[in-house]
């Protein structure tokens, strides 16, 4: 089984010598037919081809009618019983279709497409993982509100390639844009009943076809081939600008839902084998979405591998973020297996040698939280990083205001700054962790510092949806507020959070819009809000422009100083060619003691890091973090290779510095409350 996963299955439609062949997998069907549909009226069947099972589980037909542009649907018949959902009257989506179009609420048909496209010699950027800065964005929401882009393409694949979009990403210093799901998805029935849609797109119905709604109206009118080509053009132009494209992929479940769900594809072809299901027809759900694909079935594993290879080779994407990845590695006993055949195949397939593989290392099933347990090849979303940084800068500060006491000192913060070795202590080193403070699900950066509780009423679920564990802090007033002191505190908190993220060891991920303080008015689960609430705001205020300039500056500092993005965990004593030296100091400029580490009221930490350059010189930085609202006097440490210090950034300031201020080791300095300093050590 495992060796089969390393080569394409040949399923779907292929064309050779004027003849087209379709191959479909089903272990339980008794017959499968291919309906060739009328071009003008796809509800009319022009021809019917009977597929034959010439090898176990594989149904196929070859005919000249199967050619580029052919519209078709599948129909299947099979046994009855609780595990089966065959209905010969329902048109089914081919699981391997590259082009899918919608005719009605439940009418989805397939279109044969070609792989012809002019890439103009543009190659993948192949950015080293250690230099990666991920920008999580919605393919529509990123550009829909940008008036500098022509109205007919705003919010489309074409807009991703617009010079204004690329200029923004380049100015920020982004190396990889991670797109929320663009594999074809549909909206959940309960959303459609409320007049809402699945905006985030975590409800996939086909793993090959790009979502047509994100294409321009011109491309949609021309058909699936034009949609594919528009997306390829966007990827090509982002690559031309040196920006990689990562896809958020949802292989853990499908849009067919649970027992009461509708049949679109997999359920009508082989429900008993595509899904985890018991003998009574009950779906084992570790995703919270009604069903879980059966990753104990070789056909499901093959489907995922073929899909990944298609997007990597044909669509030229640079990597993937796997949603609820623990489900993908559940074995025949429904238990997480770090040596699962799917994970092994991804690791060993040379197709993905240069691809970035990121996992969301949890699901909602028993034993679902698996952060730190995926194989070395995968970088993992680090939810403990998110919570630790939020607690230090936000909920702990709120606690101190109310009670006079902080909940946490600096020990956990230091662990996160150094790459979360307690979680991802493997050969990948610090590159095993993807650090983030916000993501698409949860508060935006602005709302994290502006709301104590969620405000999700517009979602139509009585504010019950979305997490309550936000570790947020409104700084004294809930929501938008005109108090200039509160506004200033909020802006500084945003800078502190961004600075911590970009000066931490690991791969940083920024959520689109956070660089300019985007708000969702306290909604921490805007999954169904395709409107200005979710779209990135391009009409910015001066304060938002200042924040954007700061984020760009912080990314620039990270890019220019390898000591801020180490690949390996640090060593206390020495800087070598492979390992940076890291020393930790308290506010007196002394090496941290056990008491310093474990006292929750010790809220000041200095991290001195030194990187050995190839020429024998050192790239050394002192990161000063002060986590109390009161001002403090701090002694700069006398550290190795530090003849003097140059202040590169102070989070108390609204904008990056325009000149360099120098300090001496041993000098006593005053640091304002809740702030970060970054100083360069000069030998």
Kindly describe this structure.
The structure is a single chain. The protein is of the alpha/beta class and 683 residues long. The protein has a domain at 562-682: Immunoglobulin-like (Sandwich). Helix content is 23%, strand content 19%. The protein is built from 16 helices and 24 strands. The strands form 4 sheets. Strands 1-2-5-4-3-6-8-7 form an 8-stranded antiparallel sheet. An 8-stranded parallel barrel has the order 9-10-11-12-13-14-15-16. A hairpin with a 2-residue loop joins strand 4 (45-55) and strand 5 (58-63). Helix 11 (383-403) packs antiparallel against helix 14. The radius of gyration is 27 Å and the shape is elongated.
Short overview:
The protein is of the alpha/beta class and 683 residues long.
What is the name of the CATH architecture of the domain at 562-682? Sandwich
DSSP helix fraction: 10-25%
What is the 3D shape?
Answer: elongated
Top CATH class of the domain at 562-682: Mainly Beta
| Largest sheet composition | 8 strands, antiparallel
Q: Largest sheet, order of strands side by side?
A: 1-2-5-4-3-6-8-7
- Measure the end-to-end span: 58 Å
SS content category: alpha/beta
What name does the CATH topology of the domain at 562-682 carry? Immunoglobulin-like
Mean pLDDT reading = 96
Uncertain parts: none
* Helix count, DSSP H or I runs of 4 or more residues: 16
Q: Which superfamily, in CATH terms, is the homologous superfamily of the domain at 562-682?
A: Golgi alpha-mannosidase II
Total E-strand runs: 24
Q: What is the percentage of strand-forming residues?
A: 15-25%
Rg over alpha carbons: 27 Å
């Amino acid at each position: 089984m495992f060796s089969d996963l390393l080569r394409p299955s040949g399923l779907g439609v292929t064309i050779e010598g004027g003849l087209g062949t379709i191959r479909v997998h089903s272990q339980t069907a008794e017959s499968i037919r291919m309906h060739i549909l009328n071009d003008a009226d796809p509800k009319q069947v022009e021809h019917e081809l009977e597929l034959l099972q010439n090898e176990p589980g594989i149904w196929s037909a070859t005919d000249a009618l199967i050619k580029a542009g052919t519209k078709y649907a599948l129909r299947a018949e099979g046994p009855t019983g609780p595990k089966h959902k065959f209905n010969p009257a329902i048109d089914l989506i081919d699981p391997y279709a590259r082009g899918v179009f919608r005719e009605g609420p439940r009418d989805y048909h397939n279109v044969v497409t070609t792989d012809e496209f002019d890439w103009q010699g543009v190659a993948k950027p192949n950015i080293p993982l250690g230099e990666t800065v991920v920008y999580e964005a919605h393919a529509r929401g990123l550009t829909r509100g940008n008036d500098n882009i022509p109205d007919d393409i705003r919010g489309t694949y074409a807009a991703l390639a617009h010079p204004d979009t690329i200029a923004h990403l380049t100015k920020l210093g982004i190396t990889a844009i991670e797109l929320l799901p663009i594999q074809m998805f549909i909206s959940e029935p309960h959303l459609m009943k409320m007049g809402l849609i699945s905006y985030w797109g975590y409800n996939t119905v086909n793993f090959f076809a790009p979502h047509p709604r994100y294409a321009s109206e011109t491309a949609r009118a021309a058909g699936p081939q034009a949609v594919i080509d528009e997306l390829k053009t966007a990827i090509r132009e982002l690559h031309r600008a040196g920006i990689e494209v990562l896809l958020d992929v949802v292989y853990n479940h499908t849009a067919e839902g649970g027992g009461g769900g509708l049949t679109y594809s997999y359920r009508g072809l082989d429900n008993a084998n595509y899904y985890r299901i018991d003998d009574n027809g009950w779906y084992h759900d570790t995703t919270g979405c009604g069903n879980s694909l059966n990753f104990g079935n070789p056909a499901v594993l093959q489907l995922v591998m073929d899909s990944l290879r298609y997007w990597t080779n044909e669509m030229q994407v640079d990597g993937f973020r796997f949603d609820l990845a623990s489900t993908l590695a559940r074995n025949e006993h429904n238990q997480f297996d770090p040596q699962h055949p799917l994970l092994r195949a991804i690791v060993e397939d040379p197709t993905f040698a240069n691809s970035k593989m990121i996992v969301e290392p949890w699901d909602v099933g028993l034993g679902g939280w698996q952060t730190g347990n995926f194989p070395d090849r995968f970088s993992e979303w680090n939810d403990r990083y998110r919570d630790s940084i939020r607690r230090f800068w936000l909920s702990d500060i709120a606690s101190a205001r109310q009670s006079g006491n902080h909940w946490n000192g600096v020990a956990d913060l230091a662990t996160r700054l150094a790459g979360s070795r307690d979680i991802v202590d493997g050969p990948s080193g610090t590159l095993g962790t993807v650090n983030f403070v916000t993501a698409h699900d949860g508060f935006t950066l602005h709302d994290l510092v502006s709301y104590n509780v969620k405000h999700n009423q517009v979602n139509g679920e009585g504010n019950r949806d979305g997490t309550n564990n936000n570790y947020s802090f409104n700084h004294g007033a809930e929501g938008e507020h005109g108090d200039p002191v509160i506004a200033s505190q909020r802006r500084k908190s945003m800078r502190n959070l961004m600075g911590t993220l970009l000066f931490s060891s690991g791969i940083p991920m920024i959520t689109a819009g956070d660089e300019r303080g985007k708000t969702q008015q306290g909604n921490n689960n805007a999954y169904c809000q395709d409107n200005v609430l979710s779209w990135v705001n391009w009409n910015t205020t001066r304060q938002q422009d200042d924040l954007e300039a700061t984020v760009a500056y912080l990314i620039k500092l990270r890019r220019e100083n390898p000591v801020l993005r180490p690949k390996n965990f640090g060593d206390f004593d020495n800087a070598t060619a492979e390992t940076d030296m890291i020393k930790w100091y308290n506010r007196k400029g002394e090496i941290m003691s056990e008491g310093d580490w474990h006292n929750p009221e010790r809220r000041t930490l200095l991290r001195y890091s030194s990187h050995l350059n190839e020429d024998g010189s050192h790239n050394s930085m002192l990161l000063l973090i002060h986590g109390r609202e009161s001002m403090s006097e701090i002694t700069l440490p006398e550290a190795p290779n530090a003849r003097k210090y140059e202040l590169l950034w102070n989070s108390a300031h609204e904008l990056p510095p325009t000149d360099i201020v120098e300090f001496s080791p041993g000098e006593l300095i005053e640091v304002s409350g809740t702030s970060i300093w970054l100083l360069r050590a000069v030998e």
